């Protein structure tokens, strides 16, 4: 009896597996993948190039336990806060790793299938997913040295005996690209003798070996669990380092891209509304490759945006920001950018390579140091220590200018940056501390000994409610940002895939044009990037004379289409010919 013909899903899955594992029986492995994912081989493929987002999508990035209330699970506290205070402002919540961990504030995962009891339970994740889209972290490159898998590796038993990447300490690994300064290999005593395991990040974070199909199958099991718990957006953490070939850079290798395509194939067949985001903090042109041909990441992080925008606002010169954005390709339908200014990590400097000169980078670093920032380094293939990221809270990053130091324009500069991020092509994402204007947490740095702790403050809800309900900069930031998000979510011209065109208005004014997908709404965003008043003529914007143009931020109507506009330091306008209706509770 002849074998039944393969379904389209099986054919595509086998094609990916043949690239990743050319020496294995990929039909058998495909069957195991489908079984592990509980996926029917006859499942119909989702339509390609679908936009699974619109202008109403704004993401919140947060740890599960950033907000703490006495006698309440932090995940429950977070859910209440987001539902009561941010329901009109955001659509999605990115929960940073909420699993038991041994270091790196969650990114050294000990057990991928359990919610850290100090944060809550799976039911809290499920409940949150009923009100908001939830993005979970798939810490796929490495896991904790204290995990059961690594204990099994040392004992030579399964699962785990073959889960970790080993290397010969005498091999030439000088070409390996690293984000850290620690030694790449860690010596480990096992039941089978001394071994050297690969540690891209730290010696508590042991790299997994995807050359072993058992590792791939285990992660398919984990992803399936997350899908069942309501997670639909997946952040692939540090995925650029996934596949190793000694003698190469061991970053962005073809097999890594193929694994991402395979994961996307499985995930979107199981849940067609799911989204994959790759976290690849690398130079801009390398980052762009993770879109694939609209068959890898749905979204990629716009890693060059934070350093370039901060640089523009502290120097008063937007030339590099403008040049970079003009070089960025419009995302294909079904893909888009994730725009952010702050995150649980620092402000990455690798994405400035080829965009800022050494002198400009040094000026930016020194300015951030002046505002209380710390600098983390990496080791280059030549063995040199090189600045890798700036660790600073976003509020402190905008304390002043590079030329004059701290000044009175901190809030205006901070809001201007948020206004840029929200208006650009892509989905905006706010790190929770950017909603509050949280300052550098130097005490936490001293307690942990890690620079990244500077922007990982823990808020007691009583303290947070106090500062949000009294005249503080925290209240001012929160009220202003939430108002802007509500305006933004109502404008079709701010659809993540709406047309974007950068305008030329000199180095002090940053400006661009957005047009809705149906071409009905046009919107001109103009920002004063300096600490001095700036002027421009509306004639420079080429406004349609028959339309009425209103600044959505101030609600001022501009009837004279040839008139002169003065923007105060860091002021900006969103000039639109139509106003979307703002939803408020």
From TrEMBL:
GO terms, molecular function: glycosyltransferase activity
Q: Which residues does the record give as substrate binding sites?
A: 104, 142, 235-237, 344-345, 452
GO biological processes: carbohydrate metabolic process
Span of domain Glycosyl hydrolase family 13 catalytic? 57-488
Q: CDD domains, from UniProt? A: AmyAc_Sucrose_phosphorylase-like_1 (cd11356)
Signal sequence region = none
Provide this UniProt record's keywords sorted from A to Z: Glycosyltransferase, Transferase
Question: Do you know which PANTHER family this protein is assigned to?
Answer: ALPHA-AMYLASE FAMILY MEMBER (PTHR10357), GLUCOSYLGLYCERATE PHOSPHORYLASE (PTHR10357:SF214)
Q: What is this protein called?
A: Sucrose phosphorylase
Organism of origin: Marinomonas alcarazii
Species lineage, top-down? Bacteria, Pseudomonadati, Pseudomonadota, Gammaproteobacteria, Oceanospirillales
């Amino acid at each position: 009896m002849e074998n039944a013909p393969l379904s389209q899903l099986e054919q595509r899955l086998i094609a990916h597996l043949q690239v990743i594992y050319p020496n294995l029986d990929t039909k058998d492995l495909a069957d195991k993948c489908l079984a592990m994912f509980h996926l029917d081989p006859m499942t119909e493929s989702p339509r390609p190039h679908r936009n699974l987002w619109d202008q109403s999508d704004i993401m919140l990035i947060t740890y599960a336990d950033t907000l703490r209330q006495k006698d309440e699970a932090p995940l429950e506290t977070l859910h209440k806060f987001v539902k009561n205070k941010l329901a009109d402002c955001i659509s999605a919540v990115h929960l940073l790793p909420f699993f038991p961990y041994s270091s790196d504030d969650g990114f050294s995962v000990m057990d991928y299938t359990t919610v850290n009891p100090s944060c809550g339970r799976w039911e809290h994740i499920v409940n949150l997913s009923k009100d908001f889209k939830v993005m979970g972290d798939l810490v796929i490159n490495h896991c904790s040295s204290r995990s059961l898998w690594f204990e099994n590796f040392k004992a030579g038993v399964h699962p785990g005996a073959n889960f970790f990447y080993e290397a010969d300490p005498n091999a030439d690994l000088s070409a390996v690209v690293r984000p850290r300064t620690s030694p790449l290999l860690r010596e480990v005593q096992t039941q089978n003798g001394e071994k050297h395991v690969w540690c891209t990040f730290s010696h508590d974070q042991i790299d997994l070996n995807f050359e072993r199909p058992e590792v791939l199958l285990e992660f398919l099991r984990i992803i399936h669990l997350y899908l069942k718990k309501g997670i639909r957006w997946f952040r692939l953490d540090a995925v650029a380092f996934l596949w190793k070939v000694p003698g190469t850079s061991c970053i962005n290798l073809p097999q890594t891209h193929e694994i991402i395509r395979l994961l996307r194939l499985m995930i979107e067949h199981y849940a067609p509304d799911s989204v994959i985001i790759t976290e690849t903090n690398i130079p801009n042109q390398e980052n762009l490759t993770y879109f694939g041909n609209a068959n890898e990441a749905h979204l990629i992080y716009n890693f060059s945006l934070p350093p370039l925008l901060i640089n523009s606002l502290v120097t008063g010169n937007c030339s590099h920001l403008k040049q970079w954005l003009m070089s960025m390709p419009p995302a294909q339908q079904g893909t888009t950018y994730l725009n952010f200014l702050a995150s649980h990590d620092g402000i990455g400097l690798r994405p400035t390579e080829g965009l800022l000169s050494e002198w400009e980078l040094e000026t930016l670093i020194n300015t951030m140091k002046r505002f209380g920032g710390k600098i983390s380094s990496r080791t280059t293939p030549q063995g040199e220590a090189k600045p890798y990221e700036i660790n600073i809270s976003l509020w402190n990053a905008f304390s002043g200018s590079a030329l004059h130091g701290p000044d009175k324009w901190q809030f205006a500069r901070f809001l201007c940056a948020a206004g840029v991020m929200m208006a650009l092509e892509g989905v905006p994402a706010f790190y929770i501390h950017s909603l509050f204007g949280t300052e550098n947490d130097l005490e936490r740095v001293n307690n942990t000994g890690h620079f990244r702790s500077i922007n990982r403050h823990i808020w007691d809800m009583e303290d947070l409610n106090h500062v949000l309900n009294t005249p503080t900069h925290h209240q001012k930031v929160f009220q202003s940002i939430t108002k802007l998000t509500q305006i933004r979510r109502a404008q079709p011209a701010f659809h993540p895939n709406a047309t974007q065109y950068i305008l030329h208005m000199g180095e002090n004014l940053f400006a661009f044009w957005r047009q809705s997908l149906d071409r009905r709404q046009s919107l001109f965003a103009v920002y004063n990037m300096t600490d001095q008043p700036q002027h421009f003529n509306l004639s420079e914007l080429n406004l349609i004379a028959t339309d009425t143009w209103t600044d959505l931020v101030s609600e001022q109507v501009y009837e004279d289409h040839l008139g002169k506009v003065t923007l105060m330091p860091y002021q900006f306008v969103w000039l639109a010919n139509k106003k979307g209706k703002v939803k408020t509770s």
